[in-house]
Structures are given as C-alpha cells and as structure tokens.
Amino acid sequence: MAASLLLAGAARHTQLARAATSSSQQEATIQALTRAHTAVVGIQVTAAAGARSAETLGAKRAGSGVVIGPDGLILTIGYLMLEAESIQIMTQDNRTIPARAVAYDLATGFGLLRPLLTLRGATPVPLGSVKDLKPGDALMASTGGEDGEVAMTHVVGTRPFSGYWEYFIESALFTSPPIDNHSGAAVFNQRGELLGIGSLVVSDASGEGRRMPGNMFVPVDLLKPILGELQQNGVSRQSRRPWLGLTSSEQGGRVQVVRVSKDSPADSAGLRAGDMVLAVDGDRVGSLEDFYKKLWARPSPDGEVQLTVLQGADQKTITVKAVDRMTTMVKPAGI
Fold it and tell me: Which domains does the chain have, with CATH numbers?
C-alpha cells in the first residue's frame, strides 16, 4: 500500500513537472516570437527615373524587412529596392525613417538596407537554418508597415527553385497557407530565429503538380556565407554572371521564351517570345535549371553565347552578346 502511494505520488509529481515545463516552454516561445516580430519593419521604395525594373515591378513598391544587425542593418527581398531613388522604413512605433541601400544580390535575391536614423525598440534577430525543418513544422510569418501582422504557416518542404527571370537557388523554403503581403516578409521558427525572406506566392507549394497555395521564402542559409561580402562590396561575386534579358518557362522538357526584355541582349540578338531554347554553346538543355547553370558556367559575364533555338519551324543558332546585369541597372545611392 505504501509503495502504491509512493508510486502515485511520484507519477503526480512527474505530471506537475511536465506541465510546468510545458508552460515554461510556451512562455519562452511567446517571448521569442514577440521579440522577433518587433524587429520586422515596413519598407516603401520609389524607383529612380528611367529604372528598367519599373516596367515589371512598378515605380512605387511596398513590403517588409527585418533587422539583423546591431547597427540597424535590415534584410529584405532585393526586388523591392532594385534601382531605388528613395527608401523609407516604417517602424513598429509608426515612425518613418529614411534608409539607404547597402547591397543587392542578384544570385540569392537578397537586399540589405541601413536606416539613416537610430531604430528604437528593434532587437536584431538571430539567423537560423532550414536544414532541420520537417514538413508540417509550425512557423510564424511576420510583416511590417501599416498593415503589418503575424500569421502562422507550416513547412511544406525545401527544394531547388528556378525562377522565370533568370534566377535559380539550390534550396528554397516553401510554406502553406500563404500570406499575401509576402514581399520581404520574415518567417521565424519557434525560437524566434529568422529562417527566410518572402519572395513569391506560389500555386503549388508542394511542387507535385497539385493545387497547394503557399509562399516561397529565400533561406537565410544562403546569406550567411556572403553577408560580409555584401556589406563590403554591395554585391556577391556569384552575382557577376551573364544576363540575357529573358523570361522563360519550362514546357515538356524544353525551355520556352515567354518574354524578351526591351533593349536587352536577347532583344538585340533577335530572340522572340515563343522561341524554344534547345542548347547553350552546343550543349543541350532540358530545364530552366540546366539552362541557367550552363549559361552561368561561363568564366566572364560579358561575352558571346551561342543559343540553339527553335523559332516556329526553323532551328537557328543565334549569337547573343551577354552582359553583367548589374551594369545595366540604375544603382541606388549607397551601393
């Protein structure tokens, strides 16, 4: 009988200890996520006159960013600040602060900003990693500005991502359900560590050809190796690569040109929407990833590229004089 009472008492003690531990963990999670959200700011950008990017991104842009440095350094998605003339930061206490561009990285898609006045109440967030995430893990997505909010989302998975705008990363984070105000949004794990920066809304976050609306986030794992380089040079070495000026899609194992940017190398060479790209310098391509990797494997961003294309019923070899895209854009003050 005494033994039974002792066992019952021990069991009750264990339950209480677990409840206390669970409560303590929940409180720690709430505090971590609250701190993380206070580091998220709104961003408003006006593009410079004559900016090429205004055609597709608009002259006025709005999104979010997150403070990652003790000096107020802000990480955002690069297309927001592309060819910016003016940049404004909206803080959580409703202040509007001017900022300057620090870096724009074509290869990853990240952008860095620094406010010109002191940010109050924003503690820099630690950088986490997507490596240990599992499908179904709960994450917090956070946005800034007047419509800033937090929302819970879940991990769908990580996988390579090819963008139609001559963009590829080896690992992108996909989540669902989606948040609409995704540009530069921050996504955090339950420890309040930053995992990624919002880039896109996607219709199939699973990548399996079924409808699953979600978001693509650029993982901060890609930032860590180049952060110092970006702050010093305004760009990473991997961003100095050939650019043609094509918007493309993948169709049945072929790369199809959807749009040709005006006055781009592809436009000058005579490429047209509807063309099928079959090979780069004689090497056949069957996917966007394959196309980009063969194009970017060239030792210099400037130089002639031989594209084998199908224009209508005619197969042609077209010579394109590629350029370093960073030289074609209006640089924001600071870079």
Answer: 38-115 (2.40.10.10), 240-327 (2.30.42.10)
